[in-house]
Design goal:
The structure is a single chain. The protein contains 23 helices and ten strands. It folds into two domains: 318 residues, ABC transporter type 1, transmembrane domain (ABC transporter transmembrane region fold, Up-down Bundle), CATH 1.20.1560; 244 residues, 3-Layer(aba) Sandwich (Rossmann fold), CATH 3.40.50. The radius of gyration is 36 Å and the shape is elongated. The strands form two sheets. Strands 6-7-8-3-9-10 form a six-stranded mixed sheet, with helices on both faces. It has a four-stranded antiparallel sheet with strand order 2-1-4-5, covered by helices on one side. It has 591 residues and is an alpha/beta fold. Keywords: ATP-binding, Membrane, Nucleotide-binding, Transmembrane, Transmembrane helix, Transport. InterPro entries: AAA+_ATPase, ABC1_TM_dom, ABC1_TM_sf, ABC_transporter-like_ATP-bd, ABC_transporter-like_CS, P-loop_NTPase, Type_1_exporter. One of its GO terms (molecular function) is ABC-type oligopeptide transporter activity. It holds the Pfam family ABC_tran.
Length: 591
């Protein structure tokens, strides 16, 4: 674990909020001033008793106001002023803290999401979507709730202890020691509770992630759940996760709930000591009646905040557990850094070379081993092979979704690791076999990544992808909402929209990764008719199970267990009578 990751979560939060240091100080100052003026009324009560009892020898009389009416008038003006300032600073700290909470929440969520987007695909394979959603939603919201009120509560608590404790020591040092005797025990108990609560709330956040992960996974697979009539099974699994979350919270609650009752007992000791010993001091003439009244009243303001310390510590521990999870995400290193070499799209010719590539997914045997192939600019090549032969891995390496372990990939003679990732990916149009569409309109999905295009360009791309005909038959045509993941469309319709999206991007390199796997024969034939135009003046890599889709490619590579075992044109490979010829006979029905 890095030094940053191992440091105190509060220190990590303070480092992150450094750009807002001025607002933090302003909010803190307003919290302290509000507490000072909020504590003033008990002092005013003591002064009022002093005026009535001592009259011309009261505290106010010593500053020159000797008449009772004048003293009471001064006292009334002070009361109005103090209460007004207390209300003003309450408004100020409330507004400052809450705005700061919203700002940090916004920035932290945006930074966390932006960092997530920079991480490699292997990170997402090891983390569940629910866990990540829990961090960028629940944990950041937990921090926001703490900053809304918890930070102010802590500041006001310590301000109260310092001011009231100092006053006690100054006015009646003999009594004050007994009154404040419980405080060290309360502080020690608070620290002990904090240490025991921290791991329990860390476990609560972990259990929250697990149940979020379960729910997100089930909602995504609701059609599968229904088709296998697994509703009861999944409900039981959700119940088990929810029960684990409840048990985790119970362990935390069992400890935190015991805090306030214990504190109340200690407070009672301090209050009773003040009441009894202070009364003796007044009876013996060593303490004035006004001071005694003030002390009996103010002792509650000194000790009572300790009862809310449990709630504040509870909030604090929840927030710090969340801060740790968010900061750990932000500290996750980016395994695939961007290069610093620029390559404008209009300068890309599209020549691709893979030289002695070796790559293995984590914990698995190599998917590609010492593989080399060359794709001339502007040509169409086909890649075929059995499932697991490494075809789609080629695409992911070319897009730098993963980093190769050996060898190099060159684009126009430049190692792609030297290129800026944005430039590399802008020049590649990728149609995946697992089409992902966003909730929105048909037009929005086609224009995704090309956000400033005109409707005419969207329509043109849809026609090239043989999608226009079914689009205009939808209820609202190109403005039809297709639902999350395009669930209102068939698999073939989704795939045609994905092809249109890639064509609208107009990339110098087009990758069709099983792009016709979900379309019917008629649609496939239509797409094949447009391929001649689609692939014109661009490098095209077509990965296919259906050999008919790549039979006219300039060159076909046959892969087996991460290696190229055959290559050539369709006719050459048929004459070779190897793996490709066997696959062709199987698919075409020729014996």
């Amino acid at each position: 674990m890095s030094a940053v990751a191992a440091s105190n979560p509060l220190q990590r939060l303070l480092r992150y909020s450094r750009p807002h240091r001025a607002q933090v100080w302003q909010a803190s100052l307003c919290s302290v001033l509000n507490t000072i003026f909020d504590l003033a009324p008990p002092y005013l009560i003591g002064i009022a008793v002093d005026v009535v009892v001592k009259r011309e020898s009261s505290l106010i009389a010593r500053v020159g106001v000797t008449s009772i009416i004048g003293q009471l008038a001064v006292l009334s003006l002070l009361t109005f002023l103090i209460w007004g300032l207390e209300s003003l600073f309450q408004y100020a700290y409330d507004r400052l803290w809450r705005n700061l909470a919203q700002t940090l929440q916004h920035e932290l969520r945006l930074d966390a999401y932006s960092h997530l987007q920079e991480l490699e695909l292997s990170f997402f394979e090891e983390q569940s979507t629910g866990t990540l959603l829990s961090i960028i939603n629940d944990d950041i919201n937990q921090l926001e709730r703490f900053l809304d009120s918890g930070a102010n509560d802590i500041l006001q608590f310590f301000t109260t202890i310092v001011l009231v404790g100092g006053t006690f020591l100054a006015l009646a040092p003999g009594v004050s020691w007994f009154a404040m005797l419980p405080i060290p025990f309360i502080v020690w108990g608070s620290i002990a509770f904090q240490k025991r609560l921290a791991p329990r709330y860390a476990d609560v956040r972990q259990q929250a992630s697990l149940i979020n992960s379960r729910l997100a996974n089930n909602l995504s697979g609701i059609a599968t759940i229904k088709s296998f009539t697994a509703e009861d099974y999944e409900r039981d699994r959700v119940a088990a996760e929810s029960e684990a979350y409840r048990r985790s919270n119970r362990r935390a609650i069992a400890l935190s709930a015991a805090f306030i009752p214990l504190i109340r007992i200690l407070i009672l000791v301090g209050f009773t000591a003040t009441l009894f010993l202070g009364g003796i001091e007044v009876a013996n003439g060593r303490l004035s009646v006004g001071t005694y009244g003030f002390m009996v009243f103010i002792i509650q303001r000194l000790l009572w905040p300790f009862t809310s310390l449990g709630k504040t510590m509870d909030q604090y521990q929840r927030a710090m557990a969340s801060v740790n999870r968010v900061m750990n995400l932000l500290d996750t290193p980016i395994a695939i850094p961007t290069g610093d070499r620029s390559l404008p799209v209009h300068q890309v010719r599209g020549e691709v070379s893979l030289e002695h590539i070796t790559f293995a997914y984590q914990g698995r045997s190599p998917a590609l081993e010492d593989l080399s192939l060359h794709i001339p600019a502007g040509q169409t090549i086909g890649v075929v092979g059995a499932t697991g032969s490494g075809k789609s891995t080629l695409v992911k390496l070319l897009l730098r979704f993963y980093e190769i372990q050996q060898g190099q990939i060159l684009l126009d003679g430049i190692d792609i690791r030297e290129l800026r990732l944005r430039d590399l990916r802008r020049c590649i149009g990728w149609v995946s076999q697992e089409v992902f569409l966003f909730h929105g309109t048909v037009a929005d999905n086609i224009a995704y990544g090309s956000f400033d295009v005109m409707r005419e360009e969207i329509t043109r791309s849809a026609k090239l992808a043989e999608a226009h005909e079914f689009i205009i038959e939808l209820p609202d045509g190109y403005d039809t909402i297709i639902g999350e993941r395009g669930q209102k469309l068939s698999g073939g319709q989704r795939q045609r929209l994905a092809i249109a999206r890639a064509l609208l991007k107009d990339p110098p390199i087009l990758i069709l990764d099983e792009a016709t796997s979900a379309v019917d024969n008629e649609t496939e034939a239509a797409i094949q008719r447009s391929l001649e135009y689609i692939t014109q003046d661009r490098t095209t890599i077509a990965i296919a199970h259906r050999l008919s889709t790549i039979r006219h490619a300039d060159r076909i590579y046959v892969m087996d267990h991460g290696r190229v075992v055959e290559q050539g044109t369709h006719e050459t490979l048929l004459n070779h009578d190897g793996i490709y010829a066997a696959l062709w006979r199987l698919q075409s029905g020729v014996k």
